[in-house]
Amino acid sequence: MRGFQSKYIFVLIPILFLTVFSVVIWSQKAIARSENQEYEACLKLTRIEPELAFESALSWRDKGGGFPARHCAALALMGMKKYHLAADRMEKIAEDMHAAGSKHVVAMLSQAANSWLLAEQFPRAHAVASAALDLDPGNIDLLIDRSRILAAAENYQEAFNDLDLALRLDPTRADALAFRAAAWRHLGNNERALEDADLALTLDPSQIDALIERGILHRLMGNTEAARDDWMTVLEITPHSPAGEIARRNIEKLELD
Questions:
Q1: Which among 113, 123, 229, 245 is most buried, taking Cβ atoms within 10 Å?
Q2: How many other C-beta atoms lie within 10 A of the C-beta of residue 188?
Q3: By CB neighbour count within 10 A (0-12 exposed, 13-18 middle, 19+ buried), where does 69 fall?
Q4: Residue 164: inside a domain, yes or no?
Q5: Mean pLDDT by 10 residues, the chain (257 residues)
Q6: How many angstroms separate the Cα of 146 from the Cα of each of 155, 167, 176, 233?
Q7: Chosen domain end from 56, 81, 106
């Protein structure tokens, strides 16, 4: 079937010291504020004009912008849909963060993995996500991310295993339930898939992935009106998103059947 998709001298010296120290502290805070503002402005630009954001980030990096500037450059590449270049930069940033003792290594690896996923480089995406999980084994978001990579590579059993572990750690994750529903379907168990999709929507009635998936399941079970209702709900919530496009295409397929 078609797919549906972070005394004076002793008084004067401490006063001078405290004054100088205060100036240094306030200067550092001002620098930090300035860097944060630069970072926020750069991130905003990646969403509007990624090419300009990339050039701005490189200029900032060359002036000592450090990790924030490099990260913004990588995000700008993502905005330009140059996912493999963005992912490669993010991996290098994560390596340098690890050497510097940064607490943001796992988050950077997660972004790199998702960038490799968008580049459809599934083995590399899986390797990077697994490296992040080695550093933070109980990270539910990472387990879900890796499951999405595995599913994209059509490795549904291992995707299911990651989602099952994520749901043992937190049974209330509606997104994990929605993705596990899809894994169940691909593994041939539509009944368990529907149970997961229904539970996900009980927890979060606007869970887009669960609505898409339940619509597919209803369609496979012959309940076209229920399928249409779920996909129409997706269009009401997010008409101009990728999910909305999937729902629209699925509704069109119903019209042709």
A1: 113
A2: 9
A3: buried
A4: no
A5: 41 37 36 71 93 94 92 96 97 96 95 97 98 96 97 97 98 98 98 98 97 97 96 96 95 86
A6: 11, 14, 11, 28
A7: 81
CATH of the domain at 228: 1.25.40.10
Asked if 113 and 147 count as a contact pair (C-beta separation under 8 A), the reply is no
Distance between CA 66 and CA 97 in Å, rounded?
10
Q: Are residues 105 and 141 in the same domain?
A: yes
Do 97 and 74 share a domain, yes or no? Answer: no
Say if residue 77 is in the same domain as residue 95: no
pTM across the whole model: 0.83
Range of 38's domain? 11-81
pLDDT at 255: 82
Q: What is the pLDDT of residue 26?
A: 34
